[in-house]
Amino acid sequence: MLRRRLFASLSALAVAVALAIGIPVAASAAEQPSVAAACNAPNWVAGKWYEAGSIVRYTNGQYYRAKHANPGYDPVISTWYWEPHRCDDGGGNTKFVVSEGQFNQMFPRRNSFYTYQGLTAALSAYPGFARTGDDATRKREAAAFLANVNHETGGLVHIVEQNTGNYPHYCDRNQPYGCPAGQAAYYGRGPIQLSWNFNYKAAGDALGIDLLRNPWLVERDAAVSWKTALWYWNTQRGPGTMTPHDAMVNNRGFGETIRSINGALECNGRNPAQVESRVNAYRNFTRILGVDPGGNLYC
């Protein structure tokens, strides 16, 4: 390990000298930075848990993004878990692969609550989303996310779960924190219909928002609503074996995102009509974005 770190330091010094005297330096495939990341990322801390998509500033002054969740592995050594990121202008303003015009084309009947501005404001919570890999991969991930969102909300029409009879059932009293907002307060809300008190607690903790005591924020604040959907997409496996984000950036196909979101009820032939609805939306959205949908569309 020491030799490898010393070699990395010497390599960095050689690159710096070359740049100083005007010699162009080409990065290797392993060193090639991925899409831009904000310059104000926190310093990497050994032993700290990092979710997929987290961006850190390493001790060499460079930025790295977590490709996979990990317990604070060294970004220079653990390259399966981390990848280099290049810094943007410092404001974190990297361009989303879906334009506002394309977003409106995808959701012509959307509820005015689900604003494009709310979505783009939420992207800072998970900088790796739709910003990982090549252009085709980024567009496929955005299309996959929005296609599942389309299915869950009826085309971004519904903000809350329509079956009010289900509302009292989403309070798990076995959790030590209980249901401080009330027995019937944790019904489905937002683009991926966040439900259950333990999910509101987990999402709120990850986002730094007290959603356990104020779950109504998910139906009142567009950016918070989108952030909860991105939280699930980037960090939760659901009934699947990987997060939807990992499925798309590792070329496992759109079908794996269905499995992670609602596989227990839809996959393996349980509800082919629902799966077809998601796949049709995904095909339509990739067409709008000008990218082929890839393989493994069904679960």
TrEMBL record:
<protein>
    <submittedName>
        <fullName>Predicted chitinase</fullName>
    </submittedName>
</protein>
<keyword id="KW-0611">Plant defense</keyword>
<feature type="active site" description="Proton donor">
    <location>
        <position position="152"/>
    </location>
</feature>
<dbReference type="GO" id="GO:0050832">
    <property type="term" value="P:defense response to fungus"/>
</dbReference>
<dbReference type="GO" id="GO:0005975">
    <property type="term" value="P:carbohydrate metabolic process"/>
</dbReference>
<dbReference type="GO" id="GO:0016998">
    <property type="term" value="P:cell wall macromolecule catabolic process"/>
</dbReference>
<feature type="disulfide bond">
    <location>
        <begin position="171"/>
        <end position="179"/>
    </location>
</feature>
<dbReference type="Pfam" id="PF00182">
    <property type="entry name" value="Glyco_hydro_19"/>
</dbReference>
<dbReference type="GO" id="GO:0004568">
    <property type="term" value="F:chitinase activity"/>
</dbReference>
<keyword id="KW-1015">Disulfide bond</keyword>
<dbReference type="InterPro" id="IPR000726">
    <property type="entry name" value="Glyco_hydro_19_cat"/>
</dbReference>
<feature type="domain" description="Glycoside hydrolase family 19 catalytic">
    <location>
        <begin position="98"/>
        <end position="299"/>
    </location>
</feature>
<dbReference type="InterPro" id="IPR016283">
    <property type="entry name" value="Glyco_hydro_19"/>
</dbReference>
<feature type="disulfide bond">
    <location>
        <begin position="267"/>
        <end position="299"/>
    </location>
</feature>
<keyword id="KW-0732">Signal</keyword>
<dbReference type="GO" id="GO:0006032">
    <property type="term" value="P:chitin catabolic process"/>
</dbReference>
<dbReference type="InterPro" id="IPR023346">
    <property type="entry name" value="Lysozyme-like_dom_sf"/>
</dbReference>
<feature type="signal peptide">
    <location>
        <begin position="1"/>
        <end position="29"/>
    </location>
</feature>
